[in-house]
Amino acid sequence: MSDQINSLELRNAYDERFQNNDLRDSDSFYRWVFKRLPAVPGQTLLDVACGSGRLLYHARQAGLWTLGIDFSIEGLRRERGIDAAGELALADGQSLPLPDQSMDYITNLGSLEHFINPGTGIQEMARVLKSNGVVAIVLPNAFYAGDLIWWVWRKGRSASHKQPIERFAAYDNWRELLEDNGLKVFKGWRYNFMFPRNRLDIEFYRRFPRKLIDLAVSPFIPYHFSYSFLYLCKKAL
Question: Cα(67)–Cα(173) distance, rounded to whole angstroms?
Fold first, then answer.
């Protein structure tokens, strides 16, 4: 599919992916992201395109009030199956059903690059973020060493994560997109998978065994050849 896909086609495609349980990361990934937020119990967190991720669960365990939104009903059903306590809403990340400056924290983990209009999605997150709030966004690297070997060198093709709309960029290219649409990056980390720490992590690698290769070589990968990047952002002045 191309960037010309409409929202209904995109929603149907992700409903099918969630039915096959194809869209998730390890439990430790969500813990890792959450621990990098300066979160305080009692504050609010919005997870945009929450899908079946565990981020909301870990935020609630830390005492935050959470809201997860996704435009895939199947994704929300999977999230509800993980933890029935959180607030969930069927909504598009490009048109958030929230008032201005209403959230302390916003997360968007590996989904912005699949939006029909990523710039609009960034502007919406900036709009609903409080003036002193923090946004955490994970985005994929166009020059990930594993993809360069597996896709470019071995197959002679551009990298693919097999999703309907795909975009990849280098660290500063993503930073510029975020800062052109109302956010200001103040901290960045690389992400190259995490060694399993619990049963859910082991299940993740059992389902996606090729990622064990990525994990094994991760200590040797330079920053700008990492799998993806985590950006912590504030509202631009």
Answer: 29
**Thinking of the domain 7-235, which architecture would CATH place it in?**
3-Layer(aba) Sandwich (3.40)
Q: Which two tokens stand for residue 29?
A: 């990934």
> Which residues make Cβ contacts (< 8 Å) with residue 149, sequence separation at least 6?
none
Rounded distance between C-alpha atoms, residue 194 and residue 209, angstroms: 13
Ordered by start, the domain boundaries in the chain are 7-235
Query: For 119-138, what is each residue's pLDDT tens digit?
Result: 999 999 999 999 999 999 99
**Span 51-73, pLDDT tens digits:** 866 899 999 999 999 999 998 88
Q: Which three-class secondary structure state does DSSP give residue 128? A: helix
Helices assigned H by DSSP within the chain: 7-19, 27-35, 55-61, 73-82, 118-128, 145-147, 154-155, 171-179, 199-207, 211-217
